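Example 148, ligand S-adenosylmethionine.
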Amino acid sequence: MLQKARKNAKDNGYTNVEFRKGDIERKIPVEDNTADLVISNCVINLTADKVACFKEICRILKNDGGRMIISDLVADREVEEDSVNPEKWCSCIDGALTKKNYLDSIRKAGFKNVKILEEKPYIGDQVDIAGEYKRRKISSLLVKAVKD
Ligand SMILES: C[S@@+](CC[C@H](N)C(=O)[O-])C[C@H]1O[C@@H](n2cnc3c(N)ncnc32)[C@H](O)[C@@H]1O
């Protein structure tokens, strides 16, 4: 992925981008208090500890005005740990928290002004195949939150 991203940037003359390898749950390879904005789409849902991810994002954001805009799936109920299906976890489905728990995780990590920018029903092909959509209501959420 990194090789491909670097090649695409080079081929298209994007000289103001850089790709770094990191683990959002443990260590984002960015210094404390340096980022103006963090964006993410359907990554945090794949992790086991959402609060740890949001704490890492909070750590790298600037204290004055640092913010994140994050998109992820949420569900009307969570899957019990012993019935997690790895394939559905990898499709961002089984790791989905409830909207309340997702927003609470953001606040627990230290964010303020947590706002939902958009919320819409999610009907993915993989979800339909698994019949999951009949069992749980899944939505796509776009959230903005500020560090200070
Ligand atoms: C569903 S894809 C989304 C990719 C991209 N954001 C997009 O919208 O097309 C999930 C991505 O999350 C990355 N990912 C999963 N767990 C991660 C972790 N703990 N730390 C960093 N990245 C992770 C995967 O490598 C993958 O690129």
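Summary: The radius of gyration is 16 Å.
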